[in-house]
Request: fold
Amino acid sequence: MKTRLVLPVLGLAAVAAMSASLGQQAATESMHDAHATHRAAMKSPRYAIREQQYDIPDVHLIAADGSTSELSAILDSDQPVALNFIFTTCTTICPVMTATFAQMQRQLAEKADEVRLVSISIDPEYDRPDVLKAYAEQFHAGGNWMFLTGDSPDIEKVLRSFDSYAGSKMNHKAVTLLKRPDHAAWIRIDGLANGESLAQEVTARLLN
Reply:
């Protein structure tokens, strides 16, 4: 299937401001900056969409409330699912992506509870349930939004299964994954779609 490039309706300025408040450095970082790829992605208004099937690994992950669940049971929901990968100490794309999910919930309004949001930490050694709980509260996450952690080998399995493993949390990819409950394939969004654009994609692809 051909990849489609999409220009979001709104720029990233409003969401990127939250990232800046969490510690983003000036744009004049060294060319050896570990976050250089992320900073470049934040300047691009484009994102790409394609459909792809993935095999969900047999792992159990831990939610912010301390409960443990099988990942396949979480993702094989009777609700549409929106999934991303973040870590709480990230100062570049992670707060942007988390804020985007929060903005998307606001944009969806009364339909927000119809979509299960899942954010999986790629820094499980630091991001334990209490840390994720505080992070979720910081972004006013709704009750239908899960933050998950687990053992490092299991998190790596998940990243690899979704073709999102980059070898280091500092270089992880800006990926959002959407799935209808009656479809086997996932809709993969590579790049930083803003909250309004993501809400439009969710409405058109998951709720219609």
Remarks:
- The beta strands are 4-6, 47-52, 60-63, 68-70, 81-86, 116-121, 145-149, 175-179, 186-191.
- Residues 7-36 have pLDDT under 50 and may be disordered.
- The longest helix spans residues 93-108.
